[in-house]
Amino acid sequence: MSLPDPPIVVSALVADGLVGSFGVGVAAEVFGYDRRQLGLPRFDFALVSEQPGLLRTDTGIAIAVEHGLDRLDRSDIVLITAWELYEEDPSAALLDALRAAAARGAVLVSHCTGAFVLAAAGLLDGMRVTTHWKYAGELAARFPRLDVDPSVLYVDNGSIITGAGTAAGVDTLLHLLRREWGAAAANALAREMVVPPHRDGGQAQFVDAPVPACQDDLLGVVLEWAGRNLAEDISVDVLARRALMSPRSFARRFRATTGTTPHAWLLGQRLAAAEELLENSDASVEEVARLVGFGTAAGLREQFTRRRGVSPRAYRRTFRAGRPASGARAAAVQLDGHRPGARGMGGDQTLVEAEFGQPA
């Protein structure tokens, strides 16, 4: 009689005092049930903390953690959930335990700010990694040896996988299952969880980019006009004429005031207006392209996919509002006011100049 295969030991490391509820829930949903009927192995799942006992989540719910760091010595997969205390250095004991697990060959997976813990252990040096887009700048500043990519949902470096924030934890763990036990098993679990087995695009499609109001009265008037007339053929010459300036003087004043170029600002406004129409109107992609000034559907698709990481149609499927559309023409009237600061400066600057969301 053959003995059953030993279970895959999975440990979710949680921070003492402030546990991220969502990350723990995702980890438990994926690894906490017997899903062998789906083609997955048997998992031995448990929470681990430096000081086992009764801990409270970030939403105030009490959870019991039975295992200390010694469980990491026999773990095949170590999950580092969102680390709410990411501004503080983890303890030497915790970092040593993670280094030992990595050296032993365990797979380490971080979710959201859990990447800060792996970075503090020196396990991410020289790697391309990700975290929640809100904390990507902080991660890159504190750990300059990392190549931080805020545009993706996860980055697979073999024995170390870093995931973005919140719902990207689902994407990250489904990717791990797909890699280790095949697409069929991962897809079957995704169906049970009622989530897509793979999401198109990256974090860029979820980033809102409000900008400060323009402090230059003259430029403000001109750009307010541009925001209301995105369908027009707007060039630096056109804007300069409205500002009663030469194109060269206008471009210099624009950059001095805003820190960006007229082209980058206009592209950002057009992309933001396209998002608004895709979310809240029944206008076709061709009509959206015309209304916001891209001219053709191909032009809109090229810029939208490059800057947001998904096609216009995929974006609409994800973010389509549930209310009835008010009509493309009516929506177009509101193009310059869809988000706070939409008439201001900077627009899509970060996305434009940093190639944020460019597909891999």
Automatic annotation (TrEMBL):
SUPFAM superfamilies, A to Z: Class I glutamine amidotransferase-like, Homeodomain-like
Every HTH araC/xylS-type domain range: 220-318
Signal peptide limits: none
Stored SMART domains: HTH_ARAC (SM00342)
The entry's keywords: DNA-binding, Transcription, Transcription regulation
InterPro entries attached to this UniProt entry: Class_I_gatase-like, DJ-1/PfpI, Homeodomain-like_sf, HTH_AraC, HTH_AraC-typ_CS, INH-QAR
Segments traversing the membrane: none
Gene Ontology molecular-function annotations: DNA-binding transcription factor activity; sequence-specific DNA binding
Pfam families reported in the protein's UniProt record: DJ-1_PfpI (PF01965), HTH_18 (PF12833)
PANTHER family in UniProt: ARAC-FAMILY TRANSCRIPTIONAL REGULATOR (PTHR43130), HTH-TYPE TRANSCRIPTIONAL REGULATOR RV1931C (PTHR43130:SF3)
Protein name, UniProt field: AraC family transcriptional regulator with amidase-like domain
Species in which this protein is naturally found: Blastococcus saxobsidens
